[in-house]
Amino acid sequence: MEKKGILTVVSGFSxxxxxxxxxxxLARYPETYALSISATTxxxxxxxxxxxxxxxxxxxxxxxxxxxxxxxxxxxxxxxxYGTPRDYVETxxxxxxxxxxxxxxxxxxxxxxAFPDTLLLFVTPPTAGELKNRLIGRGTETMDVIESRxxxxxxxxxxxxxxxxxxxxxxxxxxxxxxxxxxxxxHDRSFRNKxxxxxxxxxxxxxxxED
Amino acid sequence: MEKKGILTVVSGFSxxxxxxxxxxxLARYPETYALSISATTxxxxxxxxxxxxxxxxxxxxxxxxxxxxxxxxxxxxxxxxYGTPRDYVETxxxxxxxxxxxxxxxxxxxxxxAFPDTLLLFVTPPTAGELKNRLIGRGTETMDVIESRxxxxxxxxxxxxxxxxxxxxxxxxxxxxxxxxxxxxxHDRSFRNKxxxxxxxxxxxxxxxED
Lengths: 211, 211
Description:
Two copies of one chain form a homodimer. By secondary structure, chain A is of the alpha/beta class. The first copy, chain A, has helices at 18-28, 59-67, 86-94, 105-114, 128-136, 143-159, 172-186, 194-209, and strands at residues 7-12, 33-35, 38-40, 54-56, 71-77, 80-85, 98-102, 119-124, 165-168. Chain A contains eight helices and nine strands. At the A-B interface, α5, α6, β9, α7 and α8 of A face α5, α6, β9, α7 and α8 of B.
């Protein structure tokens, strides 16, 4: 019903398979979705293409984008900036594409502040036991690595309640379809269809006047 | 994910085809849904069976149900009571059935008050023009009938914003699937999965302790 796209932020536990999930969603419904492309000041790795994996920027360019409010959100990790260019997202939404953006919780909440209609999805393994297995890995990790994953998962879990939906990633096929259905269902939300409701009401008022 | 059923209230413009829609939804997914059966003091019509179309009650029985808080909501139309028995709804929800309840807006809002997790769906024709056609009918209606429909539709339209989702009834098949998807998607809402989130968090805390 609602023709404008919905901005969907996807977060989730590390190792929950967000990347694969989104790649599959995009591959299956290329007309429906667009993946938001982040800007970053880090150097391109081999095989990465500017405007496909990232928009690669110098520090000066990135800071100019910040100053001009051209980023919906940004953060600095290990001396490098990462951010979401506003222009790309807004253009795609206006084209009617549902835009998918993968970022962690702090970024997700900033996006929700800038675009209150943003849909927040949290990807999680089906059970706590499964999450445990993914955190511990194949027994080849050092205690340091496991502890750091554990701390991170605890932080991630704290934010889960702030998300609109939980998406269980057990079977990839099933998970992609659930995510697609959730986003499609959201298009029918009343608050996303204010124009439609307004036009129905106006028409009824006009009809009443014609009696 | 969430195993307990969701209570869904369906309202909508008169003539929007709610009855047919729900009959088809139930026929297609009999394991998933249960239709809430109203209690009433009106006399059974030919072919109506107690416990199928309605629970038929005497006025004394009905008023006893009111006194004992056995109805989620009730109203009186033309000297007859109509209401939603709490017991039937709660039993079906506990069995994991999604319970569908067709009532008008005043009742819908009362149900939402008693069960805040209730999902409110509003069924509407696809366009204001189509609604107009359905209101005016085939040109065989008296002005009185049309005026009364118009007034009613205006009242119904006023409440639309209070519903969670709008369901466009254009093509029946499509509409049934949309409704099914919306309700299924709602099962993945974070606030309906507090137990799941709690268990994930507790398990992570325990894991951290085991380091």
